[in-house]
Write a structure and sequence with these properties.
Pfam family, one (chains A, B): ADH_N
GO molecular function, one term (chains A, B): oxidoreductase activity, acting on NAD(P)H
Keywords (chains A, B): NADP, Oxidoreductase
CATH topology of the largest domain in chain A: Quinone Oxidoreductase, Chain A, domain 1
Enzyme class (chains A, B): oxidoreductase
CATH superfamily of the largest domain in chain A: Medium-chain alcohol dehydrogenases, catalytic domain
Largest sheet of chain A: 7 strands, mixed
Oligomer: homodimer
EC number (chains A, B): 1.3.1.103
Number of strands of chain A: 15
Structural class of chain A: alpha/beta
Shape of chain A: globular
Chain lengths: ~350, ~350
């Protein structure tokens, strides 16, 4: 297959970290990215070049382009962590096949992306394109965190930002594995759809009786783990209303508010703790067999409709500078970029 | 030995928890305790009655009488957790011997205290009375937390309230075991004495360049654990200036300020976590052999002068209502009550 010399890409304008902590909201891409014609990446030893079919837009991408993620930006390199596409070159038996991948070396918001050959994830033929484009970041995070939530055979867990794609995946796992999801959302309108999906309870932070209701539910259901993508004061208040040995597991920061620890004595006397979850670290810590088994389970869940991907928007690569910011503000669905 | 029918005691005026979070400072005992003549406790099965020689006054006692500790108050029962005395009755071979103890059933701010016979700690004859009166709460906490601080062969740790008796015990352990103590205090005047004692660095929170200096020390010494008895914003700021995988281990709440988590992303990307330490839980979790070995090491450290008890005041039981509040405000030393 003959490759072009150049490609279209959304290229980063900055190196390193910004030092800000604004969260993933974006109103414009201009400060961070530029749509540009750049050389197609050269494939090095142990690498694979993938022609991108469909790329995911995750909160981590938005944190990253703003310089607020756990790894530094690289100026003039395309952004975009996760996609599905066809392997077109590289030191791998998967050339010609459809794979999902993390773009380890050159980002996937581009016609072509470069990654490690060892990290390619072949897709079942019956896996839909949108499911395949987002089968790593959210689904693996959901699987790994759900295992934390049900440790010790606990029968319920709390999650906030429950209307997000990741939230819905977690609710599906709880529903299917007898570990009742207690969903926390900002807007009453989200409640019915999440109950339909399998949430045992839905708490709405804007309700006047939010904390009273939360306390009653905690007493009845005794969740042990709070999976938190928000990190605001509501989250802290929920944590302090949880029973003994509660774990506040933060994996995102949708809020810019720094929560206050109003009842630190609970860390001492109730054995509670506050920690973080990062998929990148999880993947470094578990063995390859576990990752392989988890990915197979992820694909099976999508193909069997135990999970579905709610698509909010598919933005053409060439129009992303204009249209992506508005698309990221669509509630309760996932955004993709299509080269 | 014939026992009197009544005894003098500082008796609690309230049941349960207060719901407040004021911290251990007390200006007066009247809202919480009354000096009163009460019956000498009856010894039940598996219990021991001890004639109190000298009782410790720990921050946990002050939290407790205010209704802010991890266990509920019992109205009309004497306060006081820890003391040394002579066993005068009970189902134990230690009758007639000097023991240290936690007063599990009737508090030790009294002429007699009642506890479980299984929890008596015989004292070496060469152990000084003040060391014996305070050999459990602070020394066992110091030993257990120091083991956390040096996990993984880490070569330094941070502690605040470093001028407290517990702080000094921790500094001594770090000095003697090649794990450099970074001491945090509020007042410049405390620095020299703590360096003398073995602190590798002393950070003074009231200094203008406190955080700059702290950051430099973190980079150079790479402590992994912050042992925290304060729980204020300085503590949170120190935690967020620590290197990857830092643990904030809170064991007390001298400050009433609720710290803000300004950089939650560090929990995710830097694998940091916030937790508590409670001696009561530690004693439930470790085996008896570990506790026995630890207590032997504690007594050896006091007898060999590796540790010393700085006595701020010894308040007679009959004068405690008047004199104890002022005594607890004396800096950098330990207060005792003498029946």
């Amino acid at each position: 297959m003959s490759l072009p010399e150049t490609m279209r890409a959304l290229v980063q304008l900055h190196d390193g970290y910004s030092g800000t902590a604004e969260g993933p909201a974006i109103d414009t891409l201009e400060p961070y990215l530029e749509f540009r014609e750049v050389p197609v990446p050269q494939v090095g030893k142990g690498q694979a070049l993938i022609k991108v079919h469909l790329a995911a837009v995750n909160p981590s991408d938005l944190h990253f382009i703003k310089g607020e993620y756990g790894q530094p930006r690289v100026k003039d390199r395309p952004a975009g962590f996760e996609a599905v596409g066809e392997v077109v070159a590289g030191d791998t038996p998967f050339v010609g096949q459809r794979v999902s991948f993390f773009a380890a070396h050159s980002g996937c918001w581009a016609d072509y992306a470069l990654t490690d050959a060892a990290g390619l994830v072949p897709c079942r033929p019956d896996l839909a394109e949108a499911d395949a484009a987002g089968q790593l970041v959210n689904p693996l995070t959901a699987m790994a965190m759900f295992d934390i939530a049900r440790e010790g055979d606990v029968k319920s867990f709390i999650l906030n930002a429950a209307g997000s794609q990741l939230g819905k995946l977690l609710i599906g796992l709880g529903r299917d594995h007898d570990c009742a999801p207690i969903a926390v959302v900002r807007r009453t309108e989200q409640a019915d759809a999440l109950k339909e999906l399998g949430a045992a309870e839905v708490l709405v932070t804007s309700d006047d009786d939010f904390m009273d209701k939360a306390k009653g539910i905690m007493r009845a259901m005794k969740p042990r783990v709070l999976l938190d993508a928000v990190g605001d004061q509501h989250t802290a208040d929920l944590f302090f209303a949880m029973p003994n040995r509660a774990r506040w597991v933060n994996y995102g920061k949708l809020s810019t508010e720094p929560p206050k620890l109003s009842q630190m004595g609970q860390l001492i006397f109730q054995h509670k703790r506050i920690e973080g979850f990062w998929l990148t670290r999880w993947m470094q810590e578990v063995d390859q067999a576990t990752i392989g088994k988890t990915i197979a389970a992820v694909q099976e869940r999508f193909v069997s409709s135990a999970w579905t991907t709610d698509v909010a928007a598919v933005v053409p690569l060439g129009e992303a500078m204009d249209k992506l910011p508005a698309a990221t503000k669509i509630q309760d669905g996932k955004v993709f970029i299509k080269p």
